[in-house]
Amino acid sequence: MFERIFFLALVVSVCFFVEESYAGGGEDCFPDKVSVDPKSGFTVEYSDYYKTVTNLRANETYILYCTPTPPNVTLISVKSFIKVPVERVASLDLTTLAFLEMIGADSSLQYVENSDEVTSPCLLKANRPAFKNNSSAQVDLIFQNLPTNPDPKYVTISLADNLHPLQRLEWVKFVSLFYNREKNATAMFEKIQSNYKCHVRNIANVPYSSRKIVSWVSYDLDSKIWKKINNQYIFQLTQDAAAISSSNSTETFASLTGLQKAIDSSDILIDRTQFTAPLNTYDIWQQYFGYYQTSDSSAQVPSFIKYKGVYRTQKLQNVLGYDDWFETSRARPDLVLRDLIAVQYPTYEKTYLPTWFENFSKSDSNKIVTTENCVDTSHNTNPIRAEVASCTDQPFFGDDKGRAFTNNNPNSPPRRPAEIIYILIATGILLFIGAMAVILIRKKLHRKFFEVKDGSGVQVTSHKGEIQIVKGDK
């Protein structure tokens, strides 16, 4: 009897010690903490044995704990109690796949929403199956991109278009919280952020009068509606790439007349229309956008047609034709920025080849990625695993002394009227300064005439520092 009581007391003591150690009396479960900007859309608060993560955009709160049982949290509304680190997950959001690779947690991925859409070479090699309704029992949590499922296992990733490029990237920290890999996420975020800001500083020196007007557009084949797309993401990206955004918000058009009026001043057009074969040709695009069979030499043709400046973001694709833009671009804003800089100012990084931007109007070829590219570290084949290239502060002032549009084209279009006015004003100022300089120089010449009593004229000159007097008629 005594032995039984002693054993029971020992068990209670051990349980009490374990619970106390997790309740703050022992070691911190989360030594690697992360700081976040709430403007990115989420927050995190740490205690010794759990962290409170809130998606501000979806209004969802998750308690991530390390104890054997969930903590007693009653003062806030909690959607999910999730034991971390998680070991098996499903993702119904493509960008989350990229984030998982960035922090080295992609081996936890068990299911994806649509395996055909996966473009990462290494995830293609892993060959994860598509998620089914009965798959939820096999995983710890499921990442979704909209707060549509109230099931506690569903965690929402909110990468909205009204987030700046670096704010979108910060969501890699959100994903890392579920794996206790904040250190990995912070290292990647800071490296990419530093690279991004370095390029922004360099390219900011391009004179405003030399910057290109860039417009993003799309066409919906079902509703027959055109859009000139602009949001916080596009606006900030365009500004950071030393380009001019032609509008402040997204505009929709039911007719070509309105669309063309809105975009004809653009130097570069980036098309986001979801064409599929056999409609994904430049000729078909010109028909839908009303520029078919136009003469490239006509003065009425906009620059993006005349000088072939129509781009798409579908250069990198898998063998089924799904492009990598949706999966990886949000996780590598440094490469997106370099792409947009490269299509405007090719001499900024002379050897750089864009990752996603293809010159649609010049029939650029696509890059098809396969499982064989998993070992690559090139941004042109495996951007999520590509090294963050070094960037040094080196001011850049534009191509070809600031011409409005070059792309190494000897037939670059003339400057805009505003630029011509600036040049004329500058030329006038220089001519005025030159004229004033001549007058001042002449006044300083050591040469003059004066009267003498006999009425003759005497010329006084200076030659090699000696005064010479020459008589002559007045």
State the helical fraction.
Answer: 25-40%
Note the total helix count. Answer: 13
Beta-strand content: 15-25%
Briefly note the structural class of the backbone: alpha/beta
- Main sheet summary: 7 strands, mixed
Regarding quaternary structure, what we see is single chain
Based on CA atoms alone, the radius of gyration comes out at: 33 Å
Give the N-to-C terminal Cα separation. Answer: 145 Å
Overall pLDDT score: 84
Low-confidence segments, ≥5 residues, pLDDT <50? Answer: 1-25, 401-422, 445-458, 460-474
- Form type: globular
Number of DSSP strands?
20
Provide key terms for this protein.
about 475 residues; alpha/beta; seven-stranded mixed sheet; four-stranded mixed sheet; 13 helices; about 30% helix; about 20% strand; disordered C terminus
How would you describe this structure to a colleague?
This protein is globular. It is an alpha/beta fold. The chain has helices at residues 2-25, 94-102, 121-126, 165-169, 171-176, 182-203, 232-240, 256-263, 282-288, 303-306, 325-328, 333-344, 417-443; strands spanning 42-46, 50-55, 60-65, 80-83, 89-91, 109-112, 141-144, 154-156, 213-220, 225-229, 244-245, 251-253, 268-271, 310-312, 316-317, 358-359, 367-368, 447-451, 457-463, 466-472. α6 (182-203) runs parallel beside α12. Strands 9, 10, 11, 12, 13, 14 and 16 form a seven-stranded mixed beta sheet that branches. The protein has a four-stranded mixed beta sheet with strand order 1-2-3-4, with no helix packed on it. A hairpin with a 4-residue loop joins β2 (50-55) and β3.
